[in-house]
Amino acid sequence: MPHPPADPFADPDLPHRFRGKAALITGAASGIGRATALRLAAEGASVFCADINGEGAEATARVITEHSGTAHASAVDVTDPKRCHALVSDAVAALGGLDVLCNIAGIGGSAHTTEETPERFNAFFAVNAAGPFYLSQAALPHLLERTGNIVNLASTAGVIGQAYCTAYCASKHALVGITKAMAIEYGRTGLRVNAVCPGGVNTNILGAFTPPEGASMSLISRSFLTRDMQEPESVAALIAYVGSDEAYYVNGAVLTIDGGTTTG
Question: Known catalytic residues?
Answer without folding.
Answer: 168
